Amino acid sequence: MKLGRWTTSAIALAFVACASASLSAVRTPLGAVLGPGARTGATVPLHADPTARVILSDAAGLPAASFLPSQAARGADLYKMRCTSCHAPGELIGQRFVDEWNNRRVYDLYALVRSTMPLSNPGSMKDPEYLDLTAYLLQANHHLAPGTDSLVADTLSMRKTRIAVSAP
Question: Can you point out the beta strands (E) in the chain?
Answer without folding.
Answer: 26-27, 54-55
